[in-house]
């Protein structure tokens, strides 16, 4: 692996030993900075201590953990995971029962409340705060009925830390620092929890980019990242504003999208942002794109098809595009297990990831679920996991998975089992559990592309009414973009996934909400005057 030579910006953030907030543009090396800070901190900690490293996705967590452990580096008792995982494992399971009685480990953990469960609450919540938790008895009623709702985890954890001296002492004894990535996507409760951890004495590092805020609909509030940058008493602000990933012309285009007066980066190379109008619908467009990609692969412009991504605002656009793509590809979408939204379903997903080798070893699963597996015989567990990987019979596979899930305390499994049956018999779903192949073009929504990078990006949905989201006004042609700020950030995210080349693709026919086709007009984004001269 190449050695890391930090820029002065990066080195300043790495060297600073107290609480900091890092605002980082795409490709600025923020993950490397976090990794370097963690690897510098952990050797100085006693064996019983570690750091908290919170990331937005499980995949990002695994990547950060892997990089921190390179060359057998000892991260001590550090936690790597999502904020929901931290709240559950470190605070809710061990301490909530002392405040609300009962046994949180016996509760069902769910991502989405069904219509019946919503009736317990006085109103609908995206991500409740601790104040809302305390003022609405419905949350306690849900818990008394064996339900832990994931969206309330941060508020529950804050309640625990504000109510339990034991919980406070545990956190202070176990952890020295807290790192929180993608801070612009934090909710109010998550922000308050991060602040509470700092108040308990942990050295706090927040990392984010206000321009990549794309989850307001989930309750995230990017204003809290801005608030931290202004808190000069408790935080020192470091800015990483050099994009080391994208070609300069891509940086120029993306930056002018956000800031019309952005000072362009001078460069001698050709412009690598293209706008293309293709005849027909997205299926027809994919047939043309297929020939382009084949030509690039044959001419060595790109080494592998997996280095090419097709991104869109809408999953339906990707599905239509895939129908005309004459190459191996992977369309990322939610599986039936994702749709269930329980912790049990997530564990079942990991069993499938292991079976199809995206999780490499049985030991990876044993380490991940050691708390739930309790005192189970490790050698026997390893044997069972290996038998799961080798099993070719669906029902035997399900039986063996059920044995493990029941060992973890899950007993009602028929819904999850049916989801696994649906996946097993669907090649496109099975593919989602396998490691990406070199010959697979990657298709995903703009939201799913966050944090990833590709050599070449095709950005679809560049038609008016498709992207940005638009709703009719009094007259059909009234301009009404209700989520323009977030859609602009989403467009920015999509463009900056590209290292070498970004192609903004518009088709002459646009699919309407009714499923019909009509003549398209250019997206609002294609008409912005500050982008003239920055594309081919």
In short:
The protein has helices spanning 8-15, 30-41, 58-68, 83-100, 115-118, 130-135, 138-144, 153-163, 165-174, 188-199, 223-230, 248-258, 282-299, 315-324, 336-340, 343-355, 362-368, 370-373, 378-390, 394-407, 414-424, 427-431, 446-449, 484-495; strands at 20-24, 50-55, 79-82, 108-110, 147-149, 175-180, 203-208, 236-240, 273-278, 308-312, 329-331, 441-445, 454-459, 498-507, 509-511, 517-519.
Task: Tell me what you see in this structure.
With 536 residues, this protein is an alpha/beta fold. The protein has helices spanning 8-15, 30-41, 58-68, 83-100, 115-118, 130-135, 138-144, 153-163, 165-174, 188-199, 223-230, 248-258, 282-299, 315-324, 336-340, 343-355, 362-368, 370-373, 378-390, 394-407, 414-424, 427-431, 446-449, 484-495, and strands spanning 20-24, 50-55, 79-82, 108-110, 147-149, 175-180, 203-208, 236-240, 273-278, 308-312, 329-331, 441-445, 454-459, 498-507, 509-511, 517-519. Strands 3-2-6-7-1-8 form a six-stranded parallel β-sheet, sandwiched between helices. A six-stranded parallel β-sheet has the order 9-14-13-10-12-11. Strand 6 (175-180), helix 10 (188-199) and strand 7 (203-208) form a beta-alpha-beta unit.
């Amino acid at each position: 692996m190449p050695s890391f030579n930090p820029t002065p910006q990066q080195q300043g953030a790495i060297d600073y030993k107290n609480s900091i907030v890092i605002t980082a543009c795409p490709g600025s090396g923020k993950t490397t900075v976090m990794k370097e800070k963690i690897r510098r901190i952990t050797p100085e900690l006693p064996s019983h201590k570690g750091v908290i490293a919170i990331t937005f996705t499980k995949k990002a967590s695994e990547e950060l953990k892997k990089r921190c452990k390179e060359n057998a580096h000892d991260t001590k008792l550090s936690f790597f995971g999502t904020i929901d995982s931290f709240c559950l494992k470190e605070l809710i399971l061990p301490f909530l029962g002392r405040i609300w009685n009962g046994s949180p480990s016996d509760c069902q953990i769910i991502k989405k409340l069904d219509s019946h469960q919503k009736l317990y609450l006085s109103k609908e919540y995206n991500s409740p705060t601790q104040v809302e938790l305390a003022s609405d008895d419905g949350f306690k009623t849900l818990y008394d009925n064996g339900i832990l709702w994931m969206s309330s985890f941060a508020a529950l954890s804050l309640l625990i830390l504000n109510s339990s001296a034991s919980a406070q002492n545990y956190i202070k004894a176990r952890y020295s620092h807290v790192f929180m990535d993608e801070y612009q996507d934090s909710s109010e409760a998550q922000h308050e929890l991060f602040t509470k951890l700092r108040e308990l004495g942990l050295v706090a590092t927040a990392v984010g980019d206000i321009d990549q805020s794309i989850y307001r609909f989930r309750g995230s509030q990017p204003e809290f990242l801005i608030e931290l940058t202004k808190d000069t008493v408790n935080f020192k602000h470091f800015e990483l504003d050099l994009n080391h990933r994208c070609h300069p012309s891509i940086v120029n285009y993306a930056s002018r999208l956000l800031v019309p007066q952005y000072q362009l980066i001078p460069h001698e190379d050709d412009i690598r942002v293209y706008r293309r109008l293709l005849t027909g619908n997205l299926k027809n467009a994919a047939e043309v794109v297929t020939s382009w990609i084949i030509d690039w692969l044959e001419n060595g412009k790109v080494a592998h098809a997996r280095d090419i991504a097709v991104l869109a605002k809408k999953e339906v656009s990707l599905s239509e595009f895939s129908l005309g793509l004459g190459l191996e590809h992977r369309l990322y979408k939610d599986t039936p297990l994702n749709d269930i939204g329980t912790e049990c379903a997530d564990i079942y997903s990991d069993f499938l990831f292991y079976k199809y080798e995206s999780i490499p070893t049985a030991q990876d699963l044993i380490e991940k679920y050691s708390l739930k597996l309790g005192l189970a015989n490790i050698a026997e567990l390893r044997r069972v996991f290996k038998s799961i990987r080798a099993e070719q019979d669906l029902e035997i596979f399900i039986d063996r998975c059920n044995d493990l899930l029941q060992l973890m305390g899950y007993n009602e499994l028929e819904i999850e089992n049916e989801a696994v049956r649906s996946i097993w018999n669907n090649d496109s779903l099975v593919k989602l559990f396998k490691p990406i192949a070199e010959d697979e073009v990657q298709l995903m929504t703009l939201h799913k592309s966050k944090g990833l990078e590709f050599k070449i990006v095709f950005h679809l949905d560049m038609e008016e009414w498709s992207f940005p989201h638009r709703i009719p006004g009094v007259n059909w042609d009234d301009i009404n973009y209700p989520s323009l700020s977030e859609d602009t950030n989403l467009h920015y995210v999509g463009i900056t996934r590209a290292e070498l080349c970004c192609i903004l693709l518009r088709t002459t026919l646009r699919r309407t909400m009714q499923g019909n086709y009509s003549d398209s007009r250019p997206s609002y984004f294609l008409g912005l005057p500050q982008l003239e001269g920055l594309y081919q």
